[in-house]
Predict the structure of ADP,ATP carrier protein.
Amino acid sequence: MEAVLQTRGLLSLPPKPTKASSLLNPSQGLTHRLFASKTLGFNGLCLFYRRVPSVVAKPNGVPFICKAKAASAADGKQPFFNENEKPKFMGIEILTLKKIIPLGLMFFCILFNYTILRDTKDVLVVTAKGSSAEIIPFLKTWVNLPMAIGFMLLYTKLANVLSKKALFYTVIVPFIAFFGAFGFLLYPLSNYIHPQALSDKLLAVLGPRFLGPLAIMRIWSFCLFYVMAELWGSVVISVLFWGFANQITTVEEAKRFYPLFGLGANVALIFSGRTVKYFSNLRKNLGPRVDGWAISLKGMMSIVVLMGFTICFLYWWVNKFVPLPTRSWKKKEKPKMGTMESLKFLVSSRYIRDLATLVVAYGISINLVEVTWKSKLKAQFPSPNEYSSFMGDFSTATGIATFTMMLLSQFIFDKYGWGVAAKITPTVLLLTGVGFFSLILFGDPLGPALAEFGMTPLLAAVYVGAMQNIFSKSAKYSLFDPCKEMAYIPLDEDTKVKGKAAIDVVCNPLGKSGGALIQQFMILTFGSLANSTPYLGGILLMIVFTWLSAAKSLDTQFTALRREEELEKEMERDAVKIPVVSEPGNDSVANSSLLNAASDDSTGSSSETSTPRNI
């Protein structure tokens, strides 16, 4: 029987050994051949054999397992003939450090900017004259979503005509220019460029329930800042940074260092929160007629611009001095599913339906509480500087909580399993949400008791709402996201790829805009966000209970699939497997050919594919 081994072409071992192939059969005897493990190299090819519990019988009666490897530096596992060992520092290759350290600094700068922008955008649109937190649902649906779609269409066209380097600078430089121009030009001129008089006339005609939609026109430059800050998170982080990181790192480097980026992101959150707090408190040292918020905004936007240019410099340095890894030119077909096709696929699979419910429920729940909380936050801190100072503390606390939860998440998964980890996020959101809405609805009777602690019902609601957001987001980043990605692992390849595409197309936008649409309906129906609070609390309860039910159902299915997968692996351990293909730069384990010693029939081969588990 002839065993065919594939490296990047085909390497056949002839039935009659030649002089070259006789290297595989040294004359030390059968015992040496069974128990020894040697590596023989010639012409860039590494051949080694070792004893295994079950063996494949060759026609000459010599049992062995042979594995062929092409000489590629990207494999990084077996040293090759006459290959010099690469220089290392603290066990890490110098070339890897030249990539990972700049990437870590880029990620820190991007997340540092994002925290400043995220806190500032809420201050601008919520505390502006003639506006309130009611503007946020309308802003997310009718401004942010169309701008995001338009940007991605433009990005797709630019990607077809520009090089990767030119595309990176073309996208990030307008962001840097806009934020610098806003702090030093648009905001100082806001009283002259905002149509305040026209907005007041329209509000008098349409009524207070249209305060949110009209505020978009009233403070249009602030709304533009809000959208650009949102796009910084989705475009610069998701598209530019992770696209560049995936381009220059190998699979082994990504597995080793990508989790550290998540911890570094929370460190950036802590430092940027302190920065926002510092600039927000500058107002205390200024005169009574000085616009303290304008001074604070100039300082923060200067830091954003400086960090932006630092990102550009790091990107240039890596492209200039770091060699990029070689990639295979083979392209995998990606499933392209339209909205209707995605909906049909979601409906057809119970497993995917439950997973989609988790994603949609989180998006709706966090939006229902967050906007209501921000309306109370404005009532407690009407000044932009006070509001911004509180948001700085909020960002710092979120970073610390998320950092701690990430360290604990591995223990939770190991000790209690997927099911418990998946239920922690909705449970946290349910308990803190009930406490938050209870303080809003029944705060007056609790006033005397809260006064003993030096708090009013409004301040207590603000603090409980902040705790709700901090713990919900930290649980989301450390537990919900890993649980969601783990749920794809035991699925077959077709369901896995199509299900993820369907959830990305339908469920993520639905979760983000679903809460905003519900709030818009409530505001237009009951006149204001405050009047809608009892109904929003009831809707939150229904959504969270639906979320918990879907998590329980998904846990049962996930456990069953995992047991089935483990059973299949147990059965395969009894068979003889010859590893044949190991594509460098691919996260998948190569296909394994299963040869039967009693038959030469090719139908006796099977393949196993293991997908990357990026959590």
Notes: The chain has two domains: 90-323, 337-557. The first strand starts at residue 4 and ends at 5. DSSP finds 17 helices and nine strands in the chain. The beta strands are 4-5, 11-12, 38-42, 45-49, 67-70, 88-89, 92-93, 578-579, 592-593.
